[in-house]
C-alpha cells in the first residue's frame, strides 16, 4: 500500500517561498501509457463555476521535469518564459460554463489546486541545477503572493501501477474537497460533513494556543508546524508531553508492531532504543519534530526505522503514546483525548464523514488518512463539497 509518507520524490525540483518543510512527496514509479478521465464537480454552493480555476502541476514521471497540464490534457514542461508581464505563469484551467467539467489527467505526480475568486500565482524559476521549476503557493507565509487567495489542493500519483491520491490538510485546511476513485473498486475520501468547514475554524480558534492559526475571515487554517515556523504557535507546546513519554519508557517497555515485526524499546540516557528485527534508536524529539514528523522522528524508506518513526509520530500527535504501551493504537476513540494534543488534526478528523483526514504527515498510521488507491483506475472525480 503506497501511502503519503511513502511518496518519495515526485515534486522534486518544486520550490516554495519558505524555509519550512515541503510535505508533499510523490511516488516516482514508471510512467503510464494511458490517461485517466478527471471530472470536477462544483457543489460548493458558494462559488459559481466562473469563479473557480484549476491548476494541475507536478512532475512528468517519464522525464523527471516539472510540468503542468493544459486544458486539453497535454502535459507540458515548465519554462521560464511562461512567466508573464506580472512575473508569474498562468496555468489556470477554467471550469465548464455550467455543470461538471471533464478533463484528462496524464501520467504524472503532483497536485490539483483549486482557486476560488482569484487566480493563483505560480512563478517559474530555475532550481539549484538550473532546471525550470515552480514556486508553489504557501498559504502559511504572509508575504506569499497567494496568501489572500482562497485555495486548496489534493495530491496524486498516476502511473502504470495505478492511481494513488489523497486530500491533504498537512499544510493547511481551506476548501472542502472530496475525491472519488473508480476502477477495481468505487472509493470516496475527504468528504466534509455539512457545516464541517465552520466547525474546523471554530474548534481550532477555541483550542488554547491554536487560535492564531486561523487566517483572515475564515480564509484558511494553517497547520501548527507552519504556525511554529512563522511565530504563530509555541515551539515548546509538546515539550512537557515529550518528557512524559520519555519518563514513562525509562522503566516500562514500549512495543511497536509494524510490517517487519515487533520492536521493543526503552529510554536510556536521552535515546529511545528498540530491539527487534534490528536495533533502531531515536533521540528526544522537539515540538517541531512532532508536528512535522521529522527531525528526530524522520522516517527513512528502509522498512524498519521508517515505519517505527511513523508510529511514534502518530502516537505523539494523537497523544496516545504515553498512556498506551503497545503501538499503534487502532481505537480512534482514544485519540486527541487530553489537553496537549494536535487540536488542528482533531478538528479536521471530526469534520469528515468517515473520520479520515491527513492532519499530519503520518496520519495514515492504522488507516486513518484520507487516502485511496486503485491499480485499475477508470476515473477520478474531484468535488468541491458544500460549505
UniProtKB/TrEMBL annotation:
Q: Which GO terms describe its molecular function?
A: hydrolase activity
Give a yes or no for keyword tRNA processing in this entry: no
Supply the InterPro entries for this chain.
Answer: Glyco_hydro_64, Glyco_hydro_64_fam, Glyco_hydro_64_N_2, Osmotin/thaumatin-like_sf
GH64 domain location? 33-386
Database matches in CDD domains: GH64-LPHase-like (cd09216)
Its signal peptide is 1-28
Going by the UniProt record, its keywords in alphabetical order are: Hydrolase, Signal
Query: Transmembrane residues, as ranges?
Result: none
* A Pfam short name: Glyco_hydro_64
Keyword ATP-binding included in the entry's annotation:
no
- Top-level lineage group: Bacteria
**UniProt-recorded name of the protein:** Glycoside hydrolase family 64 protein
Amino acid at each position: 500500500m503506497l501511502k503519503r509518507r511513502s511518496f518519495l520524490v515526485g515534486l522534486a525540483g518544486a520550490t516554495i517561498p519558505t524555509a519550512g518543510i515541503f510535505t508533499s512527496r510523490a511516488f516516482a514509479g514508471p510512467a503510464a501509457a494511458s490517461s485517466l478521465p478527471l471530472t470536477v464537480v462544483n457543489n460548493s454552493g458558494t462559488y459559481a463555476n466562473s469563479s473557480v480555476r484549476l491548476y494541475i502541476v507536478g512532475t512528468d514521471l517519464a522525464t523527471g521535469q516539472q510540468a503542468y497540464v493544459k486544458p486539453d490534457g497535454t502535459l507540458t514542461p515548465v519554462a521560464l518564459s511562461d512567466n508573464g508581464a506580472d512575473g508569474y505563469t498562468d496555468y489556470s484551467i477554467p471550469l465548464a460554463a455550467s455543470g461538471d467539467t471533464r478533463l484528462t489527467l496524464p501520467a504524472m505526480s503532483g497536485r490539483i489546486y483549486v482557486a476560488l475568486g482569484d487566480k493563483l500565482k505560480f512563478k517559474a524559476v530555475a532550481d539549484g541545477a538550473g532546471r525550470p521549476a515552480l514556486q508553489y503557493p504557501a498559504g502559511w507565509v504572509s508575504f506569499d503572493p497567494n496568501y489572500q487567495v482562497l485555495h486548496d489542493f489534493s495530491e496524486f500519483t498516476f502511473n502504470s501501477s495505478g492511481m494513488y491520491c489523497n486530500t491533504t490538510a498537512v499544510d493547511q485546511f481551506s476548501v472542502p474537497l472530496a475525491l472519488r476513485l473508480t476502477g477495481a473498486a468505487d472509493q470516496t475520501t475527504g468528504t466534509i460533513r455539512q457545516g464541517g468547514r465552520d466547525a474546523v475554524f471554530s474548534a481550532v480558534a477555541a483550542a488554547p494556543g491554536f487560535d492564531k492559526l486561523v487566517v483572515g475571515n475564515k480564509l484558511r487554517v494553517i497547520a501548527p508546524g507552519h504556525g511554529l515556523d512563522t511565530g504563530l504557535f509555541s515551539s515548546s507546546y509538546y515539550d512537557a508531553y515529550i518528557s512524559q513519554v520519555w519518563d514513562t519508557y525509562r522503566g516500562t517497555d514500549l512495543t511497536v508492531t509494524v510490517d517487519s515485526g515487533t520492536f521493543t524499546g526503552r529510554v536510556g540516557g536521552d535515546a529511545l532504543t528498540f530491539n527487534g528485527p534490528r536495533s533502531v534508536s531515536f533521540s528526544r524529539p522537539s515540538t517541531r519534530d512532532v508536528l512535522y514528523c521529522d527531525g528526530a522522528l524522520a522516517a527513512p524508506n528502509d522498512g524498519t526505522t521508517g515505519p517505527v518513526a511513523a508510529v511514534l509520530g502518530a502516537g505523539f500527535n494523537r497523544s496516545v503514546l504515553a498512556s498506551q504501551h503497545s503501538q499503534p493504537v487502532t481505537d480512534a476513540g482514544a485519540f486527541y483525548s487530553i489537553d496537549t494534543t494536535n487540536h488542528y488534526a482533531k478538528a479536521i478528523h471530526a469534520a469528515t464523514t468517515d473520520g479520515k483526514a491527513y492532519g499530519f504527515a503520518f496520519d495514515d498510521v492504522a488507516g486513518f488518512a484520507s487516502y485511496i488507491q486503485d491499480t485499475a483506475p477508470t476515473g477520478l472525480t474531484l468535488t468541491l463539497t458544500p460549505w
